[in-house]
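User: Some background: our group keeps a shared notebook of sequences we're curious about, and every so often someone picks one and asks for a predicted structure to add to the entry. Today it's my turn. The entry only has the sequence so far, pasted here. Could you supply the structure so I can complete it?
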Amino acid sequence: MPGWRWLRLAAGMPSFVRTGQIGDGREAACAAYVESHAARGDIADVLATIDRFAYQEAMLVNIGDEKGRLLDAAVRRAAPTLALELGTYCGYSALRIAAAAPAAQVVSVEFSAANAEVARRIWAHAGVDDRVSCVVGTIGDGGTTLDALARDHGVRPGAVDLVFIDHDKKAYLSDLRAILDRGWLHAGTIVVADNVRFPGAPDYRTFMREQQGALFDTVEHKTHVEYQSLLPDLVLESQYLAGR
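Assistant: Of course. Here's the predicted structure to add to the notebook entry:
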């Protein structure tokens, strides 16, 4: 990736932490690019168009194509009926889940209403907005979002087959614990977490190592930060063992 693209991304990180967007309009521009360049109703073409935008126009902080293939494989192993995502951003990873699991309902949680709107535009263009939805909120808001997931989206004990985590790295473990406390997982549920090495979620990684063979069976996939090949990253894929 050219250095100027890294500099633009780095300059936007304070805005991203506050608002969920880089601050230069790239997220809305991505939705417009998809609507102008991708074939309507073609999930694969929409995904390829988002990747092209990220490589050629402005880098995006979604899981990307390299790590996305790891997510695809995990989704196929989970064969979900209901998938829960933490961190929608522009809707890319939810779209990958929907593509790999054509029968699944995908519910994504996103704290930025602006990102939710971008994602909904992209899902509508891809033709999956009937089975991919976004709840604006956070798992750590005292139960409001958890209650909304249960009340409005059928997220009930033992119902979640796949969880994908790619939001605030400091919230990975606390949000997973909140989901566990609700009893939403079942034996065999697969939990996938992105960016565990960079920017890093060390407490989450430590927890999965401590729970290896007890609560979870975890595989650490060595890979790279999205849309480049220099910075190493880790994607953790953890199968829930409780009840076995």
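Suggested note for the entry: Residues 88 and 115 are 7 Å apart (CA to CA). The radius of gyration is 17 Å.
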